[in-house]
Task: inverse folding
């Protein structure tokens, strides 16, 4: 066992396995987000737009590198920890490939926000060290303002686009929840982590319900900030 | 005129225009490199390979951000300064799209090395502030080792690939020189910058010849490190 795990709850094998699964999923999500944002930057209409999306991609890479190094410090091969989530993120991105630049912007904002909310919810049930790592990883990188103002500009110029983007936002959430559900169903270590243990609180059905209510509410808030009906 | 330009030579309009052109070209090159490396990361055979190429892309973005902010501090719109070089980098990348992962690796290493050498040569003729900015931007980000060992592994496993990659390296240099030549021919400010001024040394034909000799020699050294004939 690596030095860092002593006295943090991580010395319990089942808990450690769950945390490694969670961080592996998060790391894979960040690396996938880097890839897709960089890909979307290609379709940016101006150099400035391209640079802004590239900045978001580079920030996601920074998050990934931090999670990867932390997994390494737990004595784990980070790439092996990420591997089980390959299909999940591939499927998510295959089902939510933006058709154009406005869809790329909405996906960057809504997808990032939803993922961050979800991981923050889960972090509340973890040991302080892991929680702080996750919260630091998810810290806002300050690019949201750019996306919000660009989407609002686009809708002001072409009001019809607003309706399509509102549907797009709903599709993104639906796909994200459906993939999250597959992951929890398939990964025992992860569902055990969320369920808690004898001396560790977890989520029961009622708290899962409240979590989904909060996620949905925050999503609606983000759509409203973009000027879209939720 | 911005505060930063006083007493650096940048108060001479022709010199400032040339420096802005050079930094605009460099900034565009870094942003294009980010895009292409991120694109190439998609075809990486393993998550580890993907992460290594993504790290190189993120480093290029960091360089770009630094140049963009410096152009801003000169009182210049960085995106306007970059715009004239759009076609050059588009053409270069369109003519050198890697057919597979080994070609991506060689392009990352050879292209990055050649560009860095060229900008270092030019930096020698500039005011100290601009020179230091360029040298800091080009500082090795420590990812070369990864590319070298991966390319050597690939050639050891499939010796036939070595011949194809050697040709590929030659094509990359040819395209880079041909694009560089178009830029210098089209951008008067840039060619004046390189030619020097009354109180500022520049490149004459002999020094241009020596520069090309050094660029070619360094390129051959890089090919040798990859295990490829130059």
Result:
């Amino acid at each position: 066992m690596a030095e860092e795990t002593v006295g943090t709850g991580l010395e319990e094998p089942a808990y450690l396995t769950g945390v490694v699964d969670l961080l592996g999923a998060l790391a894979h999500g960040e690396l996938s987000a880097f890839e897709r944002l960089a890909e979307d930057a290609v379709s940016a209409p101006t150099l400035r737009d391209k640079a802004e999306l590239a900045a978001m991609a580079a920030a996601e890479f920074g998050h990934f590198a931090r999670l990867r190094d932390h997994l390494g410090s737990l004595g784990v091969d980070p790439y092996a920890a990420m591997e089980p989530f390959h299909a999940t993120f591939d499927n998510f991105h295959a089902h939510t490939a933006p058709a154009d630049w406005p869809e790329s912007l909405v996906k960057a904002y809504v997808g990032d926000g939803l993922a961050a909310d979800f991981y923050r919810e889960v972090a509340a049930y973890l040991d302080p060290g892991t929680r702080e790592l996750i919260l630091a990883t998810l810290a806002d990188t300050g690019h949201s303002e750019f996306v919000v103002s660009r989407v609002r500009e686009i809708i002001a110029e072409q009001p019809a686009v607003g309706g399509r983007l509102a549907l797009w936002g709903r599709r993104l959430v639906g796909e994200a929840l459906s993939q999250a559900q597959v992951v929890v169903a398939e990964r025992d270590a992860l569902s055990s982590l969320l369920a808690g243990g004898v001396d560790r609180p977890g989520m029961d059905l009622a708290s899962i319900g409240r979590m989904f209510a909060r996620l949905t509410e925050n999503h609606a808030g983000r759509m409203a900030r973009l000027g879209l009906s939720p």
